[in-house]
Structures are given as structure tokens and as C-alpha cells.
Amino acid sequence: MKCSKNTMLLYAVTNSKLVSKLPLIEQVELALKGGITCLQLREKELDEASFLAEAIEIKKMCEKYHVPFIINDNVNVAIKCGADGVHVGQSDMEVSEVRKLVGDNMIIGVSAHTVQEAKLAEAGGADYLGVGAIYQTTTKQDATYVSLNELKRICNSVKIPVVAIGGMDRNTISKLSGTGVDGVAMVSAIFAADDIEQECKKLLRLSKDMVTDLER
What we know:
This protein is α/β, with parallel strands linked by helices.
């Protein structure tokens, strides 16, 4: 499965720390029904065996809805479960090394905070960039913040798709107009919603409108 700009429109990132009455797999299916265009499984505290078991289950769900399935950080789990891709941060393995391990067909996403990081990631073989945090977020306590001006410079400096993350919700999506970004990545705005499916439908419409505004 290849990465395109449409993949970035509504990029959901799981967070098992969010309190929910539903198991994660059910939350994910509601998000898929609501129209998310990509799903990243993020597990910082599970042991590798548990992470892999969860990944295999959620991958099947993503296949059912034909949505790319990305593993956060753990290249081994991504390979073992047959994920569509893996996302790595600046403190993780070099993207060129990740590419050697996963081959040409797996999507690689890289976190970037500056134009220099973005260019290096693209040159190393990244398929898309996750840029942020754009706004204040409680999901990542050590987040590095990126201004809208820097986001715009990053988008203008690379040819691969760019997704904005950090403090993204229905009130902040429109503020990205004019930056050149291809979509939004969300954690709490999706998985802490009272009605995940309906919220995703609203968020997807807002993201499409924002991207359409950029193209006019």
C-alpha cells in the first residue's frame, strides 16, 4: 500500500491511556467507520509480545476498511505483523536504516520539527512527515512545538505528504489553511470523543475543507 496526500487527511493515532468504556479494537472500528484515512498504533508501555498480538488484530480491522496501518517506533513489530508502514521519531533509528530493514514497499513516516530535519528525512527515504506539535497537547509531555510559519516552510521544502499533529481538533484544523499541509493527525480529538464515529465524520469534512482551501 502506497502513501498519498489523501492518506494524511484524517490520520488517527491510538492512545491506550485514554479512558474509554470500549476496548481499543472497538474504538478503532468506530474511527474507521467514521472515515479515518490512516491509523497509527502507538503503544509505549506494552511488552513486545502483547504489542504484536494487538497489532495483528488491529491490522485485520484496517484491512477490512482498506485503510493504511502504521506502527509507531517499533520496526520489529511492524515487520512481524505485516503492517503497511512504520513511523519513527528523530531520536529513533535513521530512516535510511529503517528502509534497509523494511524494504521498498513499506511506508515510512518520520517526525520533523525543522526544514533541515524534513529535507534529511525525505532524502533518507521517508514517504511522509509528521510535523508538530503545532498546538499545546497533553498527549506528549516533552513535545517540541512548531510554529505555523515553520510548518509552511517545511511543506514548501519537500515533495512528500505532510501531516500536522499536536493539539489538533475541530477548532484548530481551519487554522492550518495556507500552510500547505495535507491533513491532520489526531489522538484525543478522536479517541476521547463521546461518539467516535460521528466525530470522525465531522473532522474529515473539516480537513477536506481545509485542504481544498489550500488548493484554491
